[in-house]
Amino acid sequence: MFKIMNVNPFEESQECLFIGVKDTPEKFDGLLAQLDEKFENELTELVKSGDISAKSKKISYVHTFKKIGAKRLVCIGLGKEKELTFDVLKEAFGKAFKKVHANGIQSIAIALDTFFTDSISYDDVATALSEAFALSTYEFTGYKKKSNEPEKRIEEVKIISEADQEEIEAAVTVGYAYGKATNSARTLVNLPGNMLTATDLANYAEELGKKYEFEVEILEKEEMEKLGMGALLAVNQGSIEPPKMIVLKYQGKEQWEDVIALVGKGITFDTGGYSLKTKTGIVGMKTDMGGAAAVLGAMEVIGELRPEQNVVAVIPSTDNMISGSAFKPDDVITSMSGKTIEVLNTDAEGRLALADAVTYAKHHGANYIVDVATLTGGVITALGLDKTGAITNHEAFFEQVLEASHESGEFIWRLPLTENDRKRVRGSKIADLNNSPGSEGHAIMGGAFIGEFAEETPWVHLDIAGTADTKKEYDLGPAGATGVMVRTLALLVERFEPIK
Ligand code: BES
Ligand code: MN
Ligand code: ZN
Q1: How far apart, in whole angstroms, are the C-alpha atoms of residue 422 and residue 426?
Q2: Whole-number Å distance between alpha carbons of 59 and 75
Q3: Which atom of ligand 1 is nearest to the CA of 378?
Q4: With 0-12 CB in 10 A as exposed, 13-18 as middle and 19+ as buried, what is 280?
Q5: For the segment 281-327, what is each residue's pLDDT rounded down to a tens digit?
Q6: Band of the pLDDT at 145, cuts 50, 70, 90?
Q7: 470 lines ligand 1 (CB under 6 A)
Q8: For labelling, which of 97, 262, 349, 475 has a CA lying 20 to 30 Å from the CA of 215?
């Protein structure tokens, strides 16, 4: 797909050449000055007249009339050099790739050296463009009789740079791995509930495990019963689909120590159970395994890049259905931890499944836990559709998650967790906990409940109910599943420093 080259970008022939145009009042310098010369300084004129826009993320097409090897220039506006950030650069590339992809262009070259700035290195540019390429050209083809697969897709991206070719190659590999894995997560989330059952999810994980040599463990219902996973089993009780507890282990260190657990909610469809969702609220609940998808996506990056870290992924998976055998409000269940739970709301099922998953992660030696879940509508009320809510019991560990999110560009915002919140989830007359203490601050209640199972282990909860999918297309992807948190989790693992 990518070809890294150190040649004259204006001699190579292809359908289009990407150049970065910064908003600088002076004349072009470097490569762009050379290019301008080939056009008898017409480029400068086009920028002046606004036919080529240097404004941030503006894309201008210019035909070259065969004055250079490429048929067209795709000019990517970068705005003021000092204001350009890594995230904006990625979005700008995304926008350009989307455009050429829609136009059926198959071969692209990128004059990489026109994009770097004082704060964005050659490597950063290479990472940004390769990640943006994967993310922005992603499509979920779906099931229409008449395939909506594009007839032409981009087949080759030449990356032309004078910088060290090996370094560029390495940066491209990283960016592309992050982008591709995010797309895998998107596809899992986009799959409807009848096409992705817990068994299908387990099979997918098993394949991933084979490909990357992870240790795979898939617990069946009988094994869960033996282990006393009463919380996950309760959620599954009304279903004809068997539940799965999916575990993948990646050991990148000599010893199994400093283990990071990534725990993802894998509810393949959430009807709400007897606390039934409304006919509008139920639509879209195929995305309720977005946490599981994020964890599997992160494992794909980890499998590709093989960091020196130890990771265990734990995914509790089932659908949440209604039948004569389903669990009911008022039921009291016993979790694997031994803590009993009064079920006040069968629609607060994610925290039940995650309770046993967090306990099981500890059984696998987890020293740090991140759980990711489409857990509450409350987080949407609190933060909107573009922010992931976070809750933690450990400042220093949270700092590392936050750092990773800054680098990935995936916004997270922390919600408080107080003694009072803990009291509310412990408020049951007949059990240790209740699963739904009421609608006040209920995004916090969801986190507080899971925290009862993390106990003293450093833990961060990420509620992606608002961010796992989107109704609108954006520069780095189409409408539908976003693959949110794949990149944050993978970066957390890559950069992780054990806490003394
Ligand atoms: N899967 C839902 C949360 C959700 C809502 C995800 C909207 C995506 C979009 C979760 O299982 C749920 O039903 N949560 C309830 C909890 C309540 C009953 C305590 C909610 O948020 O309403
Ligand atoms: Mn629910
Ligand atoms: Zn749910």
Answers
A1: 6
A2: 6
A3: 21
A4: exposed
A5: 999 999 999 999 999 999 999 999 999 999 999 999 999 999 999 99
A6: confident
A7: no
A8: 349
